[in-house]
Input
Amino acid sequence: ELAKAAAVANEAFDIDVRRLDNSDAQAASDEAVDALVTKLLRKLNKKDLALMGSNLRADVTEVGEKAGVTPERLIELYIEKQLDALLSDLPDESAVDKRVRARVTERLTQRSSQTPKRLSQLWAPYCSFRDVQQDGSRRYKQKLSNWERALSFIGDHPLVHSTDKEINRGHRELVQSLLDRGVKPESAKKAITMSLACFRWAANEHDLDWNIKAVTPKAAGKAKSEMRKTASKSQMIEIAQACVKADDHIGAMGILALHGLLPTEIARIEDPATLTTKIPHILLPEGKTIQRKRAVVVCFGLDVVRRHIVEAIDYCKSKGDSEGGSATFNKRLRLMYPGEDRVSWYGLRHGTRNLWVMSNANTSLMNAFLGWAG
Output
């Protein structure tokens, strides 16, 4: 590879010499010409940021207003004028110059034709990039709903460098609107997670000079955040007994919840056979603990978990997210403890953590068992 790179560099240098001599360059290889084109495009990308300034925008806007054209045509005029400005300094004296200029023009034209023109056109390519299945599932509908709601506050603006100001404004207004309706700050923040990620991807993908800012919501009238509500030790013992008595896949899920597992983690269990080893345990792929797999030793309810683990995994996979996977189990908890909001799947997970802390267990061991990054 080094030898090849050196050969290309030498050939590119020879072409530069020929160009200075204004000699014929028909012998120049496509590879060497491509090297020159790439070099020029890097320069033009930097120049591009300067050309997207207010003067060029004002010129194009003035042309559009006089001609009475549509916003789409205005964007096309903008790109055409930008392309002319980018190519204005390229030499076209020698044969090599003409080949390079033609190829640069072709590459820039192709790039601009493939680039989305408006914010609303970013969703489909972003989903493709993230491997998000655009189907009728509940999970996708929620993502799409959040995206469309964010776009309704932002507006469908052209994909130009200054649009980040509108994006940031729209996100702030959306989060504030949710807070005004009584939505919790963390939920309001989650509502713009998808659109934040999409716009940041677009900035990188399309070389846009965007500064997409996160929004830190603050709940009005709250001096400090509320403590997370958790189940008590006596409640957790009663729930464990009820899960063993139920002896079904929901009961098995409840036992795993008392071991600190979430429905999404149950869905990702790779090999239930580890429950038959000398020390019965479950291995989970890496999550927050990216350096290692998470090993959860099953301390109680083992027979119920062994009998129903496959069905529990399939059930959680079919639901697709933590809320769907926990809904049936949470209904059973509400029947046991009517009106008790501390008793939920998440309440059990954090109740388990409390028991670890109260038993003075090793913190690193607790983090490894429960899957916290530590």
Observations:
- The chain has 17 helices and two strands.
- The first strand starts at residue 281 and ends at 284.
